[in-house]
Amino acid sequence: MDLSQNVKAVREKIAAAARAAGRNPEEISLCAATKVQSDDAIRAAIAAGIRVCGENRVQELTAHLEANAYVGAQVHFIGHLQTNKVKQVVGRVDLIHSVDSPKLLQAIHSQADRLGIVQDILLEVNVAREESKGGCLPEDLPALAELARNRSGVRLRGLMAIPPISTVSGSNRKYFSETRQFLVDIIGKMSDNKPCLSMGMSADFEDAILEGATLVRVGTALFGPRPSMGAAR
Question: Cys bridge to 69: 64, 116, 127, 186, which one at CB 3.0-4.6 A?
C-alpha cells in the first residue's frame, strides 16, 4: 500500500466531484477515518498531507493522543459517543460529529462548561431511519438544534449523516440530498456562517460531494482494508 498515492488519488476524486458539482474543491475537507490504525500509520497519513483525523472509539483516541500520533492534524470524534465517556473527549478533539440526543448534548455542554471551553459539535441525523445506527430521527432534529443553540458550552457547526451501505453508485444521493436540506432548514439557528456537512465515506464520498458535503470521512480508500483490532499498536 502506497499511502501517499492513496491520499493523492482520493484528493483527485474529491476535486473531480467538486468540479462536476460546480464547486471549489477547496471547500471540501478530507477526514482520514483512522479506526484500528496504528500510531505510525496515522503519522504516515499526516506526513502524506492529511490534515484531519477522525476516531471512532474513545479508547483508541486516548491512546493515540498519549502517543502524540496526531501532531500536525485536527482530531475529530466521528463514532458513537456514550455519555459516560464524554469527559475523555470534550476539550480533546476539535469537533464531535455524532451528537444525537438531548442527554448527550447536555453531557457535552456540562463538561465543556466545567472546563471553561466551547466544544464544536455536529448533530447526527439518522436520515434512512435505520434501527442499527445512531443519529436522531429527522423529525427530532429541529428541537435538538434549538437545544444546542441555547447551550453555551457547545457551538453547533452543522450535521453528520451515515446513510445505508452503498453497493450501487448513486444509491445514496437521495439521502445526501435530504441531509443537505435538513442543514438548510436549521442554518438560521446556527452561529457558524460556514456550516459543516459531514457525509460520504470510501464507497460514496463522490456522490456526497455532488449533493453538498463539505467534509468526507474516508478510511479504506486511504489505508486499505482495516487490520484486526489487535493489530493497532
Answer: 64
